[in-house]
Amino acid sequence: MPEGLVPMPLIEADGVDVVLGEHRIVSNVSMTVGPGEVVALIGPNGAGKTTMVRVLLGLLPPARGIVRRQPGLKVGYMPQRMAIDPALPLTVERLLRLAVSPGAGATARLLEVLDEVGAGHVAAGAMQDLSGGELQRVLLARALLREPDLLVLDEPVQGVDVAGQVELYALIARIRERRQCGVLVVSHDLHLVMAATDRVVCLNHHVCCAGHPEAVSRDPAFIALFGPQAATAFAIYHHHHDHRHDAHGEVVPLGSKTETSAHG
Asked: Which burial class, exposed, middle or buried, applies to 262 when counting CB atoms under 10 A from its CB (0-12, 13-18, 19+)?
């Protein structure tokens, strides 16, 4: 792409309203996700985040406004939860086979993606036996098997402890760098997701504020919604986690003198 040109968004909402029955769920929402960009859609429970994702993916028509998607856009979707019948004998490999084209190389492909997300060791295991973190990695692998241009992650760290959450967000960052896909992360948690993203859209039935995470954390609308402690906690978290984690969750300094001295 010639220097100075801004790439077209992978997906864009312009002035979207959603009305279900007599209730206006979201009002005048505009947002974009570009190639290679991690965008966090945050807000309290019931703010309309999942509804907005359904509109972006074409699963729910807006009452007003327009959604534009790049032609041929491939989306990998990681759901908020997956209910597994404990009586169903379903292995990880069998689940992932449903998401990969059959034929020569299918097994190697799904094992490669499991390794990419750090879950190669559970390929033969039963879905019911997975820990919270392992389940999230398997669901992420399932989304990646679509070779997506846009990865949509709905509450991706749900049911995962704090250390596991940090590892998962570091993994998402590496996937973005490796694949150069756009990533939309939906979450009601603030500090981890904001520290791991390029741009934040704060939703509470309408867009309260949007922009770089540090700017959003100081926005009066954000503070009014989440309280003054939210901005302080974000600043503390962001300062103390200015590093990345490897596939095993080990801290890897980013290499500058400042970072080395801060974490050494």
From this structure: middle
